[in-house]
Amino acid sequence: xxxxxxxxxxxxxxxxxxxxxxxxxxxxxxxxxxxxxxxxxxxxxxxxxxxxxxxxxxxxxxxxxxxxxxxxxxxxxxxxxxxxxxxxxxxxxxxxxxxxxxxxxxxxxxxxxxxxxxxxxxxxxxxxxxxxxxxxxxxxxxxxxxxxxxxxxxxxxxxxxxxxxxxxxxxxxxxxxxxxxxxxxxxxxxxxxxxxxxxxxxxxxxxxxxxxxxxxxxxxxxxxxxxxxxxxxxxxxxxxxxxxxxxxxxxxxxxxxxxxxxxxxxxxxxxxxxxxxxxxxxxxxxxxxxxxxxxxxxxxxxxxxxxxxxxxxxx
Length: 315
Fold this sequence. Notes:
It comes from Mytilus coruscus. It holds the Pfam family Endonuclease_7. This is DNA-directed DNA polymerase. The protein is α+β, with helices and mostly antiparallel strands. It has helices spanning 2-13, 23-31, 64-72, 88-98, 141-146, 152-158, 170-178, 199-211, 215-232, 248-252, 285-314, and strands at residues 47-51, 58-63, 75-81, 105-110, 116-122, 126-132, 240-245, 259-266, 269-275. Among the domains are: 14-72, His-Me finger endonucleases (His-Me finger endonuclease fold), CATH 3.40.1800.10; 76-161, Ribonuclease H-like superfamily/Ribonuclease H (Nucleotidyltransferase, domain 5); 240-275, no CATH class. A four-stranded mixed β-sheet has the order 3-6-5-4. The chain starts with a helix and ends with a helix.
């Protein structure tokens, strides 16, 4: 944003109304008989030196009409986010508002307060336009990337790079080695005791789900397992502290650096939201990672050792 703001500021304050031509460019201009933009022959006193108003660089001989249109044309730079309307734009709009000034403004085209179709940032003649590519490319990014063959060098440089310093369970690693993965270096190993201490809880919920007689009960017992897993990988850094206050003097005490937002319900009732100043990392992330690793192992095993072998036999 800072680079873009500098460019628009320079356009506003360092505008070069007179083109900068060397001897050869001046000779070329004098000899030109057609507009380099529209291709029409010049009429009498209709030829001008069309140039970049930021650098003063001469671009070519143009007619008055094309020169005027070129000067007024808005230079639009599209920036695409995949599924930005439903996710990334919410973070983006907060950051853009921090950079809004008298030259660069933020404008929205939206369906409602939560769903943005596009976001414009910039001045009248220089804009960044943030768009959601998912609106016209209704597939995941991985599928879209597979269908692209325009950038073979990019694919060559950034796909299939060697994996380094991965943390993986030994049992999972053994399966990967059977499938062809080569281990070139082991940085560190950690030993620990394992037990199926969670099995009774998982099996109980699964059994109760099979006995369920309604969709509500099925969803409940399924959630009892899934939510437990979610808690093992929960990110606690983005939490807020909310205080409900009814005293004006108490409200004044909460004018702190970590203030985030406030909601006024009535004259005597307000909610103050503050960012938390410290976080205690007490979630068993190692457990969530183990569950992810094992689930990935099961999927790979099913694909390579079951589906793949059956497919080869059938064909």
